[in-house]
Amino acid sequence: MMRTRGLVIAVAALLGMAWGGSPVMAGDLLEKKVVVYSTHGESLLEVVADAFEEETGVKVDFINLKGQLADRVRAEKANPQADVMYGAASSVFFELKSEGLFTPFFPTWAEKLNPLFRDEAGYWFGTIQTPVVMFYNSEMMNPEDAPADWSDLADTKYKGQLVFRNALSSSARATYSALLQQYEKRGELAQGWDFLKKMDANTKRYYGSGSLQFQAVGRKEAPLSFAVLNGVIDNRIKNHLPLEIIDANSGSPVITDGIALIKGGKHPNAGKAFVEFAGSAKIQALLARKFNRLPTHPDAIANAPAWMASTRFKAMDVDWGALSAKQSQWMQTWDAEVKDVGKDRR
Q: Which Pfam families does the UniProt entry name for this protein (predicted)?
């Protein structure tokens, strides 16, 4: 049921008392709708949108843009059509921040976050931490035969045993780039490209969707892959796939899915309210329970599934800020010079 206009004013005033940056002042009205561009799936967006509308009376128009989100925000810079960007890796947020596409805004929950999950100037904040882990089908591979680290994926003994996502996936783009950066930091970028080419030579197929990727591992097309941790957990629990997670020696890239206020959005007050709402401990815990999304907010863990508190993984040392300036070019090179190169020789 829609709330009354008076309650909308009260909500705006209540939230405005705590907001920093460009706050909603007491007496300001929330606009009647907010437009959200996202990489999150529609089922997740519907849960957040319905809860926000119930709380504030503000209608949420959302569009799931997947890998096209950043380009859409860029294309609309002169005349923004959205108010909030919700989802995509932190490297994308770094990139768009540098292009002047966000407005700084500090929600009340931001101070609780680890510095790894927030922009110190307030241009974006993490709402979900997303480790990307290697995993294998335990009906096809024994633990002693599984790779111990990412570098092992270039070993010829794994030829034809890998299936991956292509670089249209934001998590795959971030992972390939993070792996390449490990070599760059040692002054060995050429060796990094050689590693990716050898890994490609061992890759049986790339998939355009996560569901097809997991189906391939489940039907034993190949035993080894990598994916976001919650995707592995989902398929192990809900689809009963025999998947085992590998805690890589060098760590797993931890992608921070963020949220930001788009500069020049037509519904700025409602946009701030949505950012405040979507990143709150209450909503992060809700998404943890419904979608196995690992919260960035420490207070949300108490109300999250037990595996989130008990699962341990090493985080790879990735400079996401530095990576943001190189990822697009690196992935263009990967697509043109690495992916499926020499497949006719297999």
A: SBP_bac_6
